[in-house]
């Protein structure tokens, strides 16, 4: 492919991933609206339902979010009564995030969201698993490596 064609929008990996992510996120919107959550709030709760009582830094690493994005998000979820942020008594510099009873209870209302979303795609269950694994692998590679195009 010549260098000019490499600059065409449809030839950009970043744009294909961006457009796909936006469209998939849109599939979640009606289901998350029922819960009063944004997509970013939802994935934050998913991480906490999986592992509760985690330091903010660990949660940020898990979600690939920096503190400038994560802090206001956690404040909003705290104002909604879904979690609490508390200083770690062993290390005052660390803040621990804990789900509240309401935050844990919301998990039950969210259990059917993945299936409802996947039903709106043309992917098979095996196709979803394969695509998810390929995206995880790409994310890990991009996160840990740089390359010299020269």
Descriptors for this entry?
150 residues; mainly alpha; Arc Repressor Mutant, subunit A; three-stranded antiparallel β-sheet; globular; cytoplasm; transcription; MarR/SlyA-like
Oligomer classification: single chain
Strand order of the largest sheet: 1-3-2
Strand fraction: 5-15%
Roughly what is the average pLDDT, rounded to an integer?
94
CATH homologous superfamily title: Winged helix-like DNA-binding domain superfamily/Winged helix DNA-binding domain
Fraction of residues in helix: 55-70%
**Total count of strands:** 3
How are the SSEs placed, and which strands pair?
Blueprint: H1 3-6, H2 13-35, H3 39-50, E1 54-55, H4 56-63, H5 67-79, E2 83-88, E3 91-99, H6 101-110, H7 113-118, H8 125-144
Antiparallel strand pairs: 1-3, 2-3
